[in-house]
Amino acid sequence: MKAIIDSGGTKADWNIILKDNTIHSFKSRGIQPFIQSSAQISETLTNLIQEHQMLLDVDELFFYGSGCSASKQQVYIKDLLQKAIPKSRIVVQGDLMGAAIACCGNEAGIIGILGTGSNSCCFDGKKITQNVPSLGFILGDEGSGATIGKELLKSYFYGRMPKELKKVFIELIPGERLEVLDKVYKQPNPNAYLASFAKFAYNFRADPFIQDLIQSVFESFVKNQIKKYSFSPNNPVHFVGSIAALWKDELESVLQAHDFRLGHIITKPIDALTQYHMNNEYQHDRTH
After folding, report:
1. Which of 174, 203, 237, 257 has a CA that sits 20 to 30 A from residue 91's CA?
2. Per CATH, the architecture of 2-100+269-279 is what?
Protein backbone atom coordinates (compact mmCIF):
# COMPACT_ATOMS: atom_id res chain seq x y z
CA MET A 1 0.00 0.00 0.00
CA LYS A 2 1.06 3.58 -0.63
CA ALA A 3 0.26 6.71 1.36
CA ILE A 4 0.42 10.19 -0.15
CA ILE A 5 0.32 13.26 2.09
CA ASP A 6 0.08 16.87 1.02
CA SER A 7 0.60 19.13 4.02
CA GLY A 8 0.28 22.88 4.21
CA GLY A 9 0.82 25.03 7.24
CA THR A 10 -2.79 24.59 8.39
CA LYS A 11 -4.13 21.24 7.17
CA ALA A 12 -2.85 18.03 5.63
CA ASP A 13 -4.63 15.77 3.13
CA TRP A 14 -3.94 12.04 3.30
CA ASN A 15 -4.71 9.42 0.64
CA ILE A 16 -3.94 5.74 1.18
CA ILE A 17 -3.91 3.59 -1.94
CA LEU A 18 -5.21 0.20 -0.78
CA LYS A 19 -4.24 -3.11 -2.34
CA ASP A 20 -7.35 -3.12 -4.56
CA ASN A 21 -6.44 0.43 -5.77
CA THR A 22 -9.30 2.04 -3.88
CA ILE A 23 -8.48 5.24 -1.98
CA HIS A 24 -8.95 5.87 1.72
CA SER A 25 -8.91 9.64 2.36
CA PHE A 26 -8.78 11.72 5.51
CA LYS A 27 -7.44 15.02 6.84
CA SER A 28 -5.26 16.07 9.73
CA ARG A 29 -3.68 19.14 11.23
CA GLY A 30 -0.84 20.44 9.09
CA ILE A 31 2.61 18.99 9.74
CA GLN A 32 5.15 21.80 9.33
CA PRO A 33 8.67 21.72 10.82
CA PHE A 34 8.89 25.47 11.39
CA ILE A 35 5.50 25.77 13.10
CA GLN A 36 4.93 22.59 15.13
CA SER A 37 7.30 21.08 17.65
CA SER A 38 8.38 17.45 17.39
CA ALA A 39 6.05 16.65 20.28
CA GLN A 40 3.08 18.23 18.49
CA ILE A 41 3.84 16.38 15.26
CA SER A 42 4.30 13.07 17.10
CA GLU A 43 0.98 13.59 18.87
CA THR A 44 -0.74 14.25 15.53
CA LEU A 45 0.74 11.06 14.05
CA THR A 46 -0.14 8.97 17.10
CA ASN A 47 -3.75 10.13 16.96
CA LEU A 48 -3.92 9.45 13.23
CA ILE A 49 -2.63 5.89 13.62
CA GLN A 50 -5.19 5.22 16.34
CA GLU A 51 -7.94 6.37 13.97
CA HIS A 52 -6.48 4.77 10.82
CA GLN A 53 -4.71 1.53 11.79
CA MET A 54 -4.03 0.73 8.12
CA LEU A 55 -1.22 3.30 8.22
CA LEU A 56 0.92 0.70 9.98
CA ASP A 57 0.67 -1.53 6.89
CA VAL A 58 1.77 1.13 4.40
CA ASP A 59 4.77 0.01 2.32
CA GLU A 60 5.62 3.40 0.78
CA LEU A 61 4.81 6.85 2.10
CA PHE A 62 5.27 10.04 0.07
CA PHE A 63 5.08 13.24 2.11
CA TYR A 64 4.97 16.64 0.41
CA GLY A 65 5.03 19.43 2.94
CA SER A 66 5.31 23.14 3.55
CA GLY A 67 8.69 24.00 5.05
CA CYS A 68 10.28 20.78 3.75
CA SER A 69 12.29 22.00 0.77
CA ALA A 70 15.64 21.76 2.60
CA SER A 71 17.27 18.43 3.40
CA LYS A 72 17.51 19.20 7.12
CA GLN A 73 13.76 19.60 7.46
CA GLN A 74 13.14 16.60 5.19
CA VAL A 75 15.25 14.40 7.48
CA TYR A 76 13.52 15.85 10.56
CA ILE A 77 10.02 15.01 9.25
CA LYS A 78 11.14 11.65 7.85
CA ASP A 79 12.51 10.59 11.24
CA LEU A 80 9.24 11.47 12.97
CA LEU A 81 7.22 9.62 10.34
CA GLN A 82 9.55 6.61 10.49
CA LYS A 83 9.14 6.31 14.25
CA ALA A 84 5.37 6.37 13.86
CA ILE A 85 5.22 4.06 10.81
CA PRO A 86 8.40 1.95 11.09
CA LYS A 87 7.71 -0.56 8.27
CA SER A 88 7.21 2.04 5.54
CA ARG A 89 9.78 3.36 3.05
CA ILE A 90 9.38 7.11 3.44
CA VAL A 91 10.17 9.93 1.02
CA VAL A 92 9.81 13.54 2.16
CA GLN A 93 9.76 16.44 -0.31
CA GLY A 94 8.72 20.08 -0.19
CA ASP A 95 5.23 21.21 -1.08
CA LEU A 96 6.69 22.89 -4.17
CA MET A 97 7.70 19.50 -5.57
CA GLY A 98 4.21 18.22 -4.82
CA ALA A 99 2.68 21.22 -6.57
CA ALA A 100 4.99 20.78 -9.56
CA ILE A 101 4.14 17.10 -9.98
CA ALA A 102 0.43 17.78 -9.52
CA CYS A 103 0.41 20.57 -12.12
CA CYS A 104 2.95 19.27 -14.62
CA GLY A 105 3.56 15.56 -14.06
CA ASN A 106 6.77 14.94 -16.00
CA GLU A 107 6.49 18.13 -18.06
CA ALA A 108 8.28 21.45 -17.48
CA GLY A 109 6.44 24.46 -16.09
CA ILE A 110 6.28 27.45 -13.75
CA ILE A 111 4.47 26.79 -10.48
CA GLY A 112 3.06 29.10 -7.82
CA ILE A 113 1.57 28.18 -4.45
CA LEU A 114 -1.01 30.57 -3.03
CA GLY A 115 -2.63 29.20 0.09
CA THR A 116 -1.98 29.94 3.75
CA GLY A 117 1.55 30.74 2.60
CA SER A 118 3.12 31.22 -0.81
CA ASN A 119 6.02 29.92 -2.87
CA SER A 120 7.02 29.41 -6.49
CA CYS A 121 9.51 27.61 -8.73
CA CYS A 122 10.66 26.58 -12.20
CA PHE A 123 10.30 22.83 -12.83
CA ASP A 124 12.00 20.96 -15.69
CA GLY A 125 9.87 17.82 -15.45
CA LYS A 126 12.19 16.07 -13.00
CA LYS A 127 13.53 18.64 -10.58
CA ILE A 128 13.14 22.23 -9.46
CA THR A 129 15.70 24.34 -11.30
CA GLN A 130 14.92 27.76 -9.82
CA ASN A 131 13.24 28.80 -6.57
CA VAL A 132 13.00 32.23 -4.96
CA PRO A 133 13.55 31.36 -1.27
CA SER A 134 10.45 31.27 0.89
CA LEU A 135 10.76 33.58 3.90
CA GLY A 136 7.59 32.61 5.74
CA PHE A 137 4.65 34.72 6.84
CA ILE A 138 6.70 37.33 8.71
CA LEU A 139 9.22 38.24 6.02
CA GLY A 140 7.60 36.85 2.87
CA ASP A 141 4.54 34.85 1.74
CA GLU A 142 3.50 37.53 -0.76
CA GLY A 143 0.05 36.90 -2.21
CA SER A 144 -0.89 34.37 0.47
CA GLY A 145 -3.85 34.13 2.81
CA ALA A 146 -1.58 35.11 5.70
CA THR A 147 -0.49 38.26 3.86
CA ILE A 148 -4.08 39.18 3.02
CA GLY A 149 -4.85 38.84 6.73
CA LYS A 150 -1.86 40.98 7.71
CA GLU A 151 -2.85 43.72 5.27
CA LEU A 152 -6.44 43.71 6.53
CA LEU A 153 -5.32 43.98 10.14
CA LYS A 154 -2.84 46.76 9.40
CA SER A 155 -5.42 48.70 7.41
CA TYR A 156 -7.87 48.37 10.30
CA PHE A 157 -5.48 49.49 13.02
CA TYR A 158 -3.82 52.18 10.89
CA GLY A 159 -7.20 53.70 10.02
CA ARG A 160 -7.11 52.94 6.29
CA MET A 161 -10.07 50.57 6.22
CA PRO A 162 -13.42 52.16 5.18
CA LYS A 163 -15.89 52.67 8.05
CA GLU A 164 -18.45 50.28 6.56
CA LEU A 165 -15.95 47.45 6.52
CA LYS A 166 -14.57 48.32 9.96
CA LYS A 167 -18.01 47.81 11.50
CA VAL A 168 -18.01 44.22 10.30
CA PHE A 169 -14.32 43.51 10.75
CA ILE A 170 -14.34 44.42 14.46
CA GLU A 171 -16.63 41.45 15.07
CA LEU A 172 -13.73 39.16 14.10
CA ILE A 173 -11.41 40.66 16.73
CA PRO A 174 -13.57 41.47 19.79
CA GLY A 175 -10.42 41.76 21.90
CA GLU A 176 -9.02 44.36 19.50
CA ARG A 177 -5.24 44.94 19.36
CA LEU A 178 -4.28 42.91 22.44
CA GLU A 179 -6.15 39.89 21.10
CA VAL A 180 -4.44 40.13 17.72
CA LEU A 181 -0.97 40.56 19.22
CA ASP A 182 -1.51 37.57 21.50
CA LYS A 183 -2.68 35.38 18.61
CA VAL A 184 0.20 36.41 16.36
CA TYR A 185 3.09 36.49 18.83
CA LYS A 186 2.17 34.05 21.59
CA GLN A 187 -0.28 31.45 20.31
CA PRO A 188 0.50 28.47 18.03
CA ASN A 189 -0.11 28.59 14.25
CA PRO A 190 -0.11 32.40 13.81
CA ASN A 191 0.06 31.99 10.02
CA ALA A 192 -3.24 30.10 10.02
CA TYR A 193 -4.77 32.77 12.27
CA LEU A 194 -3.74 35.52 9.86
CA ALA A 195 -4.96 33.52 6.86
CA SER A 196 -8.39 33.10 8.47
CA PHE A 197 -9.13 36.76 7.69
CA ALA A 198 -8.90 36.05 3.95
CA LYS A 199 -12.49 34.79 4.16
CA PHE A 200 -13.56 38.31 5.18
CA ALA A 201 -11.82 39.74 2.12
CA TYR A 202 -13.56 37.24 -0.14
CA ASN A 203 -16.97 37.98 1.38
CA PHE A 204 -16.47 41.66 0.53
CA ARG A 205 -14.55 41.12 -2.72
CA ALA A 206 -16.77 43.60 -4.62
CA ASP A 207 -15.66 46.48 -2.38
CA PRO A 208 -13.10 48.74 -4.15
CA PHE A 209 -10.89 48.75 -1.04
CA ILE A 210 -10.71 44.96 -1.04
CA GLN A 211 -10.12 44.88 -4.78
CA ASP A 212 -7.15 47.24 -4.38
CA LEU A 213 -5.77 45.20 -1.47
CA ILE A 214 -5.94 41.92 -3.40
CA GLN A 215 -4.37 43.48 -6.47
CA SER A 216 -1.54 44.84 -4.31
CA VAL A 217 -0.70 41.48 -2.69
CA PHE A 218 -0.77 39.70 -6.06
CA GLU A 219 1.39 42.42 -7.60
CA SER A 220 3.91 41.83 -4.83
CA PHE A 221 3.87 38.09 -5.51
CA VAL A 222 4.46 38.51 -9.24
CA LYS A 223 7.17 41.14 -8.71
CA ASN A 224 9.09 39.25 -6.02
CA GLN A 225 8.52 35.72 -7.28
CA ILE A 226 7.41 35.10 -10.87
CA LYS A 227 9.39 37.93 -12.48
CA LYS A 228 12.62 36.59 -10.97
CA TYR A 229 12.62 33.51 -13.20
CA SER A 230 14.27 33.13 -16.58
CA PHE A 231 11.53 31.85 -18.86
CA SER A 232 9.38 32.98 -21.73
CA PRO A 233 6.42 35.13 -20.66
CA ASN A 234 4.36 33.10 -23.16
CA ASN A 235 4.66 30.06 -20.91
CA PRO A 236 1.68 29.63 -18.59
CA VAL A 237 2.06 29.94 -14.83
CA HIS A 238 0.24 27.17 -12.95
CA PHE A 239 -1.03 27.49 -9.39
CA VAL A 240 -2.14 25.38 -6.48
CA GLY A 241 -3.90 26.63 -3.37
CA SER A 242 -7.20 28.02 -2.16
CA ILE A 243 -6.25 31.68 -2.56
CA ALA A 244 -5.38 31.18 -6.23
CA ALA A 245 -8.67 29.34 -6.78
CA LEU A 246 -10.85 31.88 -4.97
CA TRP A 247 -9.23 34.90 -6.63
CA LYS A 248 -8.68 33.42 -10.09
CA ASP A 249 -9.94 36.46 -12.04
CA GLU A 250 -7.91 38.93 -9.99
CA LEU A 251 -4.80 36.78 -10.24
CA GLU A 252 -5.18 36.40 -13.99
CA SER A 253 -5.61 40.17 -14.39
CA VAL A 254 -2.36 40.89 -12.53
CA LEU A 255 -0.48 38.23 -14.50
CA GLN A 256 -1.73 39.63 -17.81
CA ALA A 257 -0.65 43.12 -16.79
CA HIS A 258 2.90 41.72 -16.58
CA ASP A 259 2.58 39.75 -19.84
CA PHE A 260 2.24 36.38 -18.16
CA ARG A 261 -0.42 33.80 -18.94
CA LEU A 262 -2.40 31.91 -16.30
CA GLY A 263 -2.31 28.13 -16.67
CA HIS A 264 -4.53 25.80 -14.69
CA ILE A 265 -5.31 26.09 -10.99
CA ILE A 266 -5.52 23.11 -8.65
CA THR A 267 -7.08 23.86 -5.30
CA LYS A 268 -5.64 20.77 -3.63
CA PRO A 269 -2.87 18.73 -5.28
CA ILE A 270 -3.56 15.54 -3.31
CA ASP A 271 -5.68 13.82 -5.98
CA ALA A 272 -3.27 14.60 -8.82
CA LEU A 273 -0.35 13.42 -6.66
CA THR A 274 -2.19 10.21 -5.84
CA GLN A 275 -2.88 9.52 -9.50
CA TYR A 276 0.76 10.19 -10.30
CA HIS A 277 1.99 7.68 -7.71
CA MET A 278 -0.54 5.10 -8.85
CA ASN A 279 0.88 5.33 -12.38
CA ASN A 280 4.59 5.93 -11.75
CA GLU A 281 7.45 4.48 -9.79
CA TYR A 282 9.19 7.07 -7.65
CA GLN A 283 12.12 8.82 -9.35
CA HIS A 284 15.04 8.98 -6.96
CA ASP A 285 16.76 11.89 -8.72
CA ARG A 286 14.02 14.36 -7.80
CA THR A 287 15.13 17.20 -5.56
CA HIS A 288 13.36 19.82 -3.45
Report:
1. 237
2. 2-Layer Sandwich (3.30)
